[in-house]
Amino acid sequence: MPEKLDVISFLAAAKQYPLIDVRSPAEFERAHIPGAISFPIFTNEERAQVGTTYKQQGKDQAVELGLEIVGPQLAQWVKKAKKIAKEGVVLVHCWRGGMRSGSMAWLFETAGLEVKVLVGGYKAYRKNVLAELEKKIPLLVLGGKTGSGKTEILIEMKRRGVQVIDLEGIAHHRGSAFGHLGLEEQPSSEHFENLLSHELQQMDFKKPIWVEDESRHIGKVFMTESFYVRLRESPCLFLDIDAKYRLPHLVQVYAQYPKADLLIALEKIKKRLGGQHFQRAVECLEINDFTEVAAITLNYYDKAYLHGLTQRDDTQINRLEIHTLDTNLQVNSVLAHDLVNFKFNT
Fold first, then answer.
1. How many domains does the chain divide into?
2. Among 130, 156, 179, which residue terminates a domain?
3. Rounded distance between C-alpha atoms, residue 88 and residue 90, angstroms
4. List of residues 6+ apart from 214 with CB closer than 8 A
5. pLDDT value for 258
6. Beta strand pairing status for 3-5 and 114-118?
7. 3 state SS of 178
8. Residues 66 and 145 in one domain
9. 94 has catalytic annotation
């Protein structure tokens, strides 16, 4: 019989052995356990067909249909699983730890593999994810106006051994109307939560975990309310950097993209910029005056960020004036800053 594991034991085993997700491609694409390998029993269409048969004709007929569909594939599945297995072991899960994972586990075990199955399936995993995001996480928030180089700072801090979670990196978005440019497609909010939980599970909660200041949505991705509240209530180190340092950085990052894409991004914030400023930005874009385009949009984003900053507890905001966008020098200043008075909401 396959070994049945709870979520914690299953995730621990996944650090050593390959994890096979037998749900449909659509289920996997929407969200999955990080590191899982998609190994669907049914295609999206087949799963829908079996489900309809179950509802209309009953379980026995649905099982018979399922067997007709999967029968010709059994030998190939075994060969594939044996290539994936490590030391003859694989982990298997489906949606709720029912027929799909049980059937696949039986097949693999019959073929000589050692199989471990997740009790409760992906549904149980998701419950664990949401519980993880409810925890009292010792966050330190790096704030600053647009173009301050916060992401680059966090990446360098992580390289130096500081605990960091790159929320924008997980979301594949920089958090503005222009934030999607040059990045791969965003994950679903559900998968973002899975990835975030996975990162948190690698962290030592006895030490601070640095994240960038964000609104609740990063592009199309939304944080859970509990994690967002934790982020907003946590101590914030605000980098006060003059626009003259930030403008060249923004031009360097965004001027490389097609003007048609930049125009689409500008149109997203047309109402917020105001008709006159929007038209001026478009005219500057047409003549390749990217610095002026950046200055116009920066005026809007600076106001928006400062408004968001007023929503924080002022006693939890520590300001650090910096006169450079050299990442190494910025990191030196951040790490040397006195954070002793910051109080975690634990």
1. 2
2. 130
3. 7
4. 167, 168, 175, 223, 231
5. 92
6. parallel
7. coil
8. no
9. yes
- Could you tell me how many residues make up the chain? 346
Other C-beta atoms lying within 10 Å of the C-beta of residue 253: 18
Q: For 261-287, write each residue's pLDDT tens digit.
A: 999 999 998 988 898 999 999 999 999
From the list 346, 334, 343, the residue with the least C-alpha distance to 315 is 343
**Structural tokens at position 279:** 């038209």
Please state, in angstroms and rounded to a whole number, the distance separating the CA atoms of residues 179 and 12: 35
In this structure, the answer to whether residues 111 and 166 fall within a common structural domain is no
Question: What range does the domain containing 35 cover?
Answer: 3-130
Position 167 in a domain = yes
Cβ count near 44 (within 10 Å): 13
- Give the pLDDT confidence of 76-125 residue by residue, as tens digits: 888 899 999 999 999 999 999 888 898 889 889 989 999 999 999 999 99
Long-range contact set of residues 185-190: C-beta below 8 Å, sequence gap at least 24: 186/219, 186/220, 186/221, 187/31, 187/221, 188/30, 188/31, 188/221, 189/220, 189/221, 189/222, 189/223, 190/30, 190/31, 190/126
Active site residue: 33, 36, 92, 94, which one? 94
- Biggest distance spanned by C-alpha atoms of the chain: 72
Which structure tokens are listed for 173? 């978005």
Does the pLDDT value for residue 346 go beyond 50?
no
